[in-house]
Amino acid sequence: MTTTDADGLTAAAVQPVVRPGRLKVFLGAAPGVGKTYRMLDEAHRRVARGADVVAGLAECHRRRHTEARLDGLEILPLAGHDYRGGRYAGLDREALLSRRPQVVLIDELAHTNVPGGGRHPKRWQDVEDILAAGIDVVTTLNIQHLESLSDVVEKITGVPQRETVPDEFVRRADEIELVDIPPEGLRRRMAHGNICPPERIDASLAHYFRPGNLIALRELALLWLAGRVDEALHKYRVEHGIGEVWETRERVVVALTGGPEGETLIRRAARIAGRSAGGELLAVHIARSDALAAGVSHAALAAQRALVEDLGGSYHSVVGDEVPTALVDFATAENATQLVLGTSRRRRLERFLTGRGIGETVVALSEDIDVHMVTHERAGHGRLLPSRRRTLPTSRLVAGPVAGVVLPVLLTLALDRMRGTLNLTSEALLFLVAVVGVACIGGVASAVIAALTAALLLNYWFMPPMGEFHVGAAVERARLVEAAAEVEPIKAADRLRTALLRAVSHDLRTPLAGALAAIGSLRAPDVDFSEEDRAELLESAEMSLNRLNRLVENLLDLSRLQAGALSLELRATTPEEVLPPALESLDLPSADTPRIDLQNLETVPALQADPPLLERVLANLVGNAVRHAPGDRPVLVTASALAGRVEVRIADRGPGIAADDRERAFEPFQRLGDRDNTTGLGLGLALARGLTEAMNGTLTPEDTPGGGLTMVLSLPVAKDGLEPGPGGMLSTS
């Protein structure tokens, strides 16, 4: 029977309804940004509006500007607690609930209470009780104390975060205000002594308060708060029925195996879910139907489940033998948009033996679901060999290997009695049927035994020649292959010798014949030459002999390169020093010889090379360009420095070399595109590349814009520790 008072109201109706308090959080990227100061400013504004405000706990850290803002506010006395021989002050929760102000200030939401000094181990749990009592709370929090970001902050700063607050609790706050200051401003505040004592300023600036740390922490705070703003905007649209813009809801599924990587995956998935409005975190563990779960730690799964729930997510366990299929089916049923998995802990050998792993299969089955493969410390450090579940009874495991030997032997005896009635193909198929039968009895291992036995018996009894194995033929084949490999270098050397003899018989004889003709004319007793004619004949003989000398030197240098007997003396030199003597050695007296333009040689740094060999390389490259360039178009030689190397480019306007023939042009005795066969052995480019590579350089051909060929010679810039050598050169000290 219900009793009523004089006004006819029930006794239950007289009980006051307690409205939950409102929570406002001042969020900062790092200590010292001014959260407590802003909290006290908020208190003064509310007092000015007539609110009953009490400072329950304000951590001023001896900052005089912050302590000054406490003036004019009612301060609740702190409760003292004894712990390990010391006296510690903390929030007096009971006194606060008895005082019941409209608004209470409680600093440092993530703080841990003194053991035994309160009802809860964490300050945020006390705040939860105060809010339930109908008291508004204004508090402060640093971004590194959010549960989902604690591991990220530890990687950035190197400082482990032992005090954390669940993201879900902070997200339920009615108002979150970011207290922001640029990193340089915060460092100046630290340097002026406004954050920590003078003796700790230098250490703080050099470690936690480094510019890179502060920039990263600031970005984390802005991104996290942006997700909170998106959520508030979504809530506003729903409450006001605004449906013009369709927004998808992020539902993130994280797959857990009970392995040590679980916490990393959960926190990564929580951050992904928190980046968009209404994001939801779901964790799932796939358990096999036969309850065989090798390597699964139930204690680790329990800890991971607790972490998921702390982050505001939900935990699910699904039974399925095919893990990838069960995982994708669960994500599809939950309308998930993203799926987070850890990279495989299997080693390379196991992946090779078992084929495609769970992650690859999930990606193939996921269709519209985005899959994130997250690396972790245990990736690639699993078992060396795959573990196999034992599904066959013991009797079949024993009978299988026995059948693998006996069944092929019995089949051999039967086929021997039927010899001549079946061909070799039919006999091989019968052996294959026997192997399949053994596999059905004892599995893969037994099938391997049967296959080896069947192969030996088929080879010995039924493949001609009967009664012997074909190992001898295989050995003979290997011997012939080895002999062919030994003959190939001899054939190559013979081809090179033939080309050399053909080139020498023509190209060495031409300059020699010219020199002999000039000298023979000078010695003729019946001819009286003028001084001009005599000088011309001597010059012709000298040019022919110089040409002959260069050909012989090229042959000798090429043979040294191929034998690995070329000696180098690397020094620091410049193209400007080496090019003039290289050009003088070319002997270019013809009137139709192209002009040679030198550009930018003096602007490049010294390069590391053997000057005489570099002179030979440049002489060969420029001479090759001059031979192929038309007389009215100059040959351009330029130099430039790029990424620790000096490039010398020799560009001509000749016919160029086809792309397919460019590598062949660097082989000895190749004269691609020569306009005549009167001079040259075709050694210039082969020798130039060999000498260049001996000096740690490269020589590559390119097309000249507008037609022609450009040879690019690249050598390293001279290293430190090189001093001037004889003649103004630089040599190693």
From TrEMBL:
The keyword Cytoplasm does not apply. InterPro entries: HATPase_C_sf (IPR036890), HATPase_dom (IPR003594), His_kinase_dom (IPR005467), HisK_dim/P_dom (IPR003661), HisK_dim/P_sf (IPR036097), Histidine_kinase_KdpD (IPR052023), KdpD_sf (IPR038318), KdpD_TM (IPR025201). CDD domains: HATPase, HisKA. Pfam families: DUF4118, HATPase_c, HisKA, KdpD, Usp. It catalyses: ATP + protein L-histidine = ADP + protein N-phospho-L-histidine. SUPFAM superfamilies: Adenine nucleotide alpha hydrolases-like, ATPase domain of HSP90 chaperone/DNA topoisomerase II/histidine kinase, Homodimeric domain of signal transducing histidine kinase. It is a multi-pass membrane protein. It is found in: Cell membrane; Membrane. GO terms for molecular function: ATP binding; phosphorelay sensor kinase activity. The keyword Manganese does not apply. It is an enzyme of class 2 (transferase). GO terms for cellular component: cytoplasm; plasma membrane. It comes from the Bacteria. Keywords: ATP-binding, Kinase, Membrane, Nucleotide-binding, Phosphoprotein, Transferase, Transmembrane, Transmembrane helix, Two-component regulatory system. This is histidine kinase. Its EC number is 2.7.13.3. The lineage of its organism: Bacteria, Bacillati, Actinomycetota, Actinomycetes, Kitasatosporales.
